[in-house]
Structures are given as C-alpha cells and as structure tokens.
Design goal:
The protein is an alpha+beta fold. It folds into 2 domains: 49 residues, no CATH class; 58 residues, Winged helix-like DNA-binding domain superfamily/Winged helix DNA-binding domain (Arc Repressor Mutant, subunit A), CATH 1.10.10.10. The chain contains 4 helices and 3 strands, in the order βββαααα. Helix 2 crosses helix 3.
Length: 130
C-alpha cells in the first residue's frame, strides 16, 4: 500500500520472463487499496507479450556468439595449418612434428598457439620486422 497525494493506492509488479530469468517488470498501479486480481491476470498476459522483444534480442545474441566463435576458430585453424606448412617446408618434417614445434614455442613464450602461428605466417609473408 502506498500513499499518493493524500490517497491510499496499491501497486503490483509482474516480471517479464525470458528463458527462466526476469529481465524487467510490468508495474500496475491502482487508486484503491485491495486485491487487484483481475488486473494481475491481465498483467501476466501482457507481460508475456511484452517479453517477446527482449526474448528475440536474447535469441539473436545467443546464436550470434557461437557463429562468431566458429568463424574465429576456422580462421585460427587456417593460420595454424599455414604455420605448420611453413615449418614442414623449412624443417622437412611431418605435420605432427610441425604442430609439436608450434605448441612448444607457444608454451615457452606464454603465447596462444594462434598468435604464434599468425606471427610465423606474417614473418614468412612480410619478412622479419625490425
């Protein structure tokens, strides 16, 4: 119960459910004190509709992230494969040994394998940086 300009009033909040989480609320204000059961039933129905837009945004964000991660992983893999090829050509070794060399350099330099591979490919293409 709330006091509004000298009059008693009531209010209720209905959460906007999205994927078992609440991301907002629909607030109902009444000018009388007492149960708002009919209004609450209507509010719950409206809250379901109001949650559609945020649910769509959540869905887009949750599907875009794995797609972006897949693209990045494919790019990383391509760079690693190129680096392996460079090592195989320079050292006359197999793919497994080339990968082991990349992994060892990654561990020894405390850098991600992807970064080591990109650096090696960059040096092969552009020459050493001074």
């Amino acid at each position: 119960m709330t006091l509004v300009q000298g009059h008693e009033a009531s209010s209720r909040s209905i959460g906007l459910p999205i994927q078992e989480a609440t991301v907002g609320a629909l607030n109902i204000y009444g000018t009388t004190v007492g149960p708002l059961e009919e209004q609450i039933h209507l509010a719950r129905t409206l809250a379901g509709y109001a949650a559609i837009a945020p649910a769509d945004v959540h869905l887009q964000e949750s599907t875009a992230t794995p797609a972006q991660q897949t693209r990045e992983a494919m790019q990383s893999r391509a760079g690693i494969e190129q680096a392996k090829g460079i090592i195989m050509g320079q050292r006359r070794c197999g793919a497994d040994e080339a990968f082991a060399i990349l992994a060892r350099v990654s561990q020894d330099s405390n850098r991600k394998l992807r970064e080591v591979a990109e650096s090696l490919v960059d040096r092969a293409v552009h020459g050493p940086r001074e």
